[in-house]
Amino acid sequence: MALTGRIALVTGGAQGIGRAISEALLREGAKVALVDSNPEVARECRGRLEEAFGVGSSLFFECDVTDWAKLQEVFRKTVKHFGHLDIAINNAGINNEKDWQKTINVNLTSLIKGTYLALEHMSRENGKDGGVIINVSSMAAFMHSPHMPVYTATKYGVLGFTKAMAEASAVGNFGVRINVLCPAYVDTPLLQTIDEEDKMGRYFKYKEELRQSMHTYGILDPSLIADGMMMIIKDGSLNGAVMKITASKGIHFQNDEPMSA
Ligand SMILES: NC(=O)C1=CN([C@@H]2O[C@H](COP(=O)(O)OP(=O)(O)OC[C@H]3O[C@@H](n4cnc5c(N)ncnc54)[C@H](O)[C@@H]3O)[C@@H](O)[C@H]2O)C=CC1
Ligand SMILES: CC/C=C\CC(O)[C@H](O)/C=C/C=C/C=C\C=C\C(=O)C/C=C\CCC(=O)O
């Protein structure tokens, strides 16, 4: 998929991984709607992106992805403004084991809603031209870590939901490729929640083990995650792919054993 003139929507787009992917898309000539709940980081991000890529190449929406009416409106307004939608990246996510129901709501429930909204605007079932969806999970979906059990559960959920939806898209001929990306630790503000008792909750006592895990597995630069995203976006053969990005193996794919009856 060549990216000039393509239209993308990125949730949690103003900071960290979402920002890195938004910048990569803009560099390649796409237009990007950034959706973020944090007005301060969004303001700073907007200034930088408009300076670097020009006013008009990006749209900014202050929106909490858990607000269903607002999320619907953001997709609608993006399509109205740019004409259509080609790429949706459900990236917004949090680590909050204290308010764990919020973690499920942001990381899993809202990602499911974002996927369905993207399909509404891209699927051939609805008379649209197809596209690509990337859902952000984590290497936490392959680990059984005691440090963030609910976060881990949401990322398992994202993995399972996305693989099932990819099959649904293939069977239903939606014309939409749906893939999942699982990074290991990435150098973003999210990692700072390790020092916030308010976010770690009862698992705060494991923070040194968690820090040790980061030391063992390494911390990646967000630009590498953006590289992985761009690979998925451009490779039209990928549907249902599970991309892992780790310090030891770099960008690679999970290959499942074929299931025997
Ligand atoms: N940083 C890491 O080590 C890893 C992160 N991930 C996942 O990558 C995704 C992005 O994470 P980071 O960039 O690291 O986090 P981050 O905290 O640096 O950035 C997340 C962005 O999402 C926004 N956001 C948070 N909740 C939101 C909501 N309810 N509605 C709209 N926007 C919201 C924040 O304002 C922020 O701009 C998350 O899904 C995270 O779980 C996956 C693996 C590793
Ligand atoms: C305070 C911490 C908050 C959040 C952390 C995260 O955002 C995050 O999503 C967690 C990531 C956890 C990563 C853990 C493990 C990394 C493992 C490896 O790198 C394993 C190496 C190779 C495996 C190769 C393979 O199986 O393909």
TrEMBL record:
| Hydrolase listed as a keyword | no
Lipid metabolism found in the keyword field: yes
Q: What class of enzyme is it?
A: oxidoreductase
The identity of this protein, by name, is 15-hydroxyprostaglandin dehydrogenase [NAD(+)]
Biological process terms from the Gene Ontology for this record are: prostaglandin metabolic process
Keyword vocabulary terms for this entry: Fatty acid metabolism, Lipid metabolism, Oxidoreductase, Prostaglandin metabolism
Q: Name one GO molecular function term.
A: 15-hydroxyicosatetraenoate dehydrogenase activity
Task: Give the record's GO CC terms.
Answer: cytoplasm
From the UniProt record, list the reaction(s) this protein catalyses: resolvin D2 + NAD(+) = 16-oxoresolvin D2 + NADH + H(+); prostaglandin A1 + NAD(+) = 15-oxo-prostaglandin A1 + NADH + H(+); resolvin D1 + NAD(+) = 17-oxoresolvin D1 + NADH + H(+); resolvin D2 + NAD(+) = 7-oxoresolvin D2 + NADH + H(+)
Domain of life per record: Eukaryota
Gene name tied to this protein: HPGD
Q: Which InterPro entries match?
A: NAD(P)-bd_dom_sf, Sc_DH/Rdtase_CS, SDR_fam
Q: Which family does it belong to?
A: Belongs to the short-chain dehydrogenases/reductases (SDR) family.
Q: Which CDD domains match?
A: ADH_SDR_c_like
Q: Which Pfam families match?
A: adh_short
**Stated role:** Catalyzes the NAD-dependent dehydrogenation (oxidation) of a broad array of hydroxylated polyunsaturated fatty acids (mainly eicosanoids and docosanoids, including prostaglandins, lipoxins and resolvins), yielding their corresponding keto (oxo) metabolites. Decreases the levels of the pro-proliferative prostaglandins such as prostaglandin E2 (whose activity is increased in cancer because of an increase in the expression of cyclooxygenase 2) and generates oxo-fatty acid products that can profoundly influence cell function by abrogating pro-inflammatory cytokine expression.
